[in-house]
Every structure is written in structure tokens, then in C-alpha cells.
Design brief:
The protein is mainly alpha-helical and 297 residues long. The protein has 2 domains: 51 residues; 222 residues, MetI-like fold, CATH 1.10.3720. The chain contains 14 helices and no strands.
Length: 297
């Protein structure tokens, strides 16, 4: 066997060993990520006794839906779903429209004052007015205690805007010039040329905004303060806080009801499940958009 063949064989063996180490490391990381989710899912279907006896439960021996039944007896869950879906269906299109319009405008090199506006937007990643001026603004506009205070409080995420603008700058200028020669205006260019070519990055930003809106709770806690307009994540926070308080008071006697671990984990599952079902429909575009951003950013 020649020296070159021995070298190639040794390199191949070392490469296979490295592959094994990487696969083993990724497998450990996957287990660490999946294990808490399986534990929460199993606990939500377990009885109170089994959940208390097995903190690391993975498969309940006596599965039951009693936790979910008791959970949906709480009217706050349905109110939370309604409010969160309203925020989602009104807020995400607004976020996408503002982000896409701003990204397209600032991606054009001939836009007057484009660099100044771009740096002004970047400045908001480091400094912002804070929650008090925002609350005073909503109060002055008479939007407090309305759903619009939560929707309009969050317009453009600077990081998502940078991702979309970076993608749009990679599109050929010849396409836009050809469209202008044919008499197309800026809105027609945006909707007929730019947006169809930007489907991967739009799907990526759409998923980001959908997750942000689905997890909305802080602005709702500050601006709404209404029991009939409480979002789902704030319902989850309220149930967890109530469980801590009630469980601490349960030593006073058996008549005080307790929030079991099963009800808490069932609440977590009903808040996670819709957004988890939404992801597979955008996974193809999401992966492609992330790869494009990683290569061309």
C-alpha cells in the first residue's frame, strides 16, 4: 500500500470518527431539548398522584384527560384564545406590511435620505423611549383598554427589518429597471416583482412575527387591564402565579383547592400546540430564508 493511499485512508477514518462525535453530541442535545417537552406532555395526561410521585415522568401509566377537562372549565382559556387570535390576525399583517415597505424602500440605492433613515432605524436597537412614554402616548390617543393598544405598540422589529432589507438588496436591479421602462410604478414593482421573489424571507419573517404575537403578554398586561381581553400567555402566567399562591395557602385546610402540576402542564400544552402546528407549513421557506440570510447577510 502506497503512502498516499494510507494518508487518504487515515483521513477517511478520522473524518468518520469526527462524524460520530458530532452525531453523538447532536443526539445528546436533541434529547435535552425533547425530554422537557415529553415530560410536560406526559404530566398533563397523568393523575395528580402519579405526577407527584414521578417528577421525571415520560409515559403515564394511567393516562387521563381530567386535567384538560378541568382546565377548559376556566373561562379565561377561551378568552385568551380569542384575544390572542385577534392580536395575531390583526398584528402580523400590519407588521409584515410595515417591515416589507420599509425594507423595500431602504433597499433602493436611489432613495433620498435612505442611509440616514437606515441608521436611525438601527439606533432603535440600542436605545428606545421605554414603556412609560409608550403608555403616555397610548393614553393620549385614548387607546388604553382597547386591543389596538397592543397591536399598534409593536410595529417593526429592527432585526427582522435588517434581514428582509439584506435579502432585497441581493435582487438584481435590472428587474426593477426593466419594470420601470415598461411603465410600472413602485407599488406595482413591489407587489408584482419583489414580493414573489421574496417568498422565503417573507415566510421567515412571518413566522418570527407570528411567534412574537402569539407570545404577547407584557403590553397586554400594561395597556389592557381587562378580564375580557386577556391574551393566552397572560392567562398562563396568571394560572401559574395563582397555583403558587393557592398551594402555599392549602396548608390552612383541605377545603382550599389546589392547582395540580397536571393543570399547569396542560395549560402549557394548550398555549404551545397552535404555534407548533403552524410551523410545519412554513418550514420549507423558513429553512431556505435562514440559509439565504446566513450566506448573503
Amino acid at each position: 500500500m502506497t503512502a498516499s493511499k494510507k494518508t487518504r485512508r487515515g483521513f477517511r477514518n478520522r473524518f468518520e470518527l469526527l462524524d460520530g462525535i458530532i452525531v453523538f453530541f447532536l443526539l445528546i442535545m436533541a434529547i435535552l431539548i425533547i425530554f422537557p417537552v415529553l415530560n410536560v406532555l406526559a404530566t398533563s395526561f397523568a393523575t395528580q398522584k402519579e405526577a407527584a410521585e414521578n417528577p421525571l415522568l415520560l409515559i403515564p401509566t394511567q393516562p387521563t384527560i381530567d386535567n384538560y377537562y378541568r382546565l377548559f372549565q376556566d373561562p379565561r382559556i377561551l378568552i385568551g384564545y380569542k384575544t390572542t387570535f385577534i392580536i395575531l390576525f390583526l398584528g402580523v399583517p400590519l407588521n409584515l406590511f410595515l417591515t416589507t415597505s420599509l425594507a423595500y424602500g431602504l433597499s433602493r440605492t436611489n432613495f433620498p435620505g435612505g442611509k440616514l433613515i437606515f441608521y436611525a432605524v438601527l439606533l432603535t436597537m440600542l436605545f428606545n423611549g421605554g414603556i412609560v412614554p409608550l403608555y403616555l402616548l397610548m393614553l393620549q390617543l385614548s387607546l388604553t383598554k382597547t386591543i389596538w393598544s397592543v397591536i399598534l405598540a409593536y410595529g417593526v422589529n429592527t432585526f427582522y427589518f435588517i434581514i428582509m432589507r439584506t435579502y432585497m438588496t441581493t435582487l438584481p436591479d435590472s428587474l426593477i429597471e426593466s419594470a420601470k421602462i415598461d411603465g410600472a410604478d413602485e407599488m406595482r414593482i413591489l407587489f408584482k416583482i419583489i414580493l414573489p421573489l421574496s417568498k422565503p424571507i417573507i415566510a421567515t419573517v412571518l413566522l418570527f412575527y407570528a411567534v412574537d404575537r402569539w407570545n404577547e403578554w407584557f403590553n397586554a398586561m400594561v395597556f389592557l387591564r381587562r378580564n375580557d381581553l386577556i391574551p393566552l400567555q397572560l392567562v398562563l402566567r396568571t394560572i401559574v402565579m395563582d397555583s403558587v399562591i393557592v398551594n402555599s395557602l392549602s396548608i390552612a385546610g383541605p377545603r382550599v383547592p389546589r392547582f395540580t402540576e397536571g393543570i399547569q402542564t396542560a395549560t402549557i400544552m394548550v398555549t404551545m400546540l397552535p404555534i407548533m402546528c403552524f410551523f410545519p407549513f412554513l418550514q420549507k421557506y423558513f429553512v431556505k430564508g435562514i440559509m439565504i440570510g446566513a450566506i448573503k447577510a
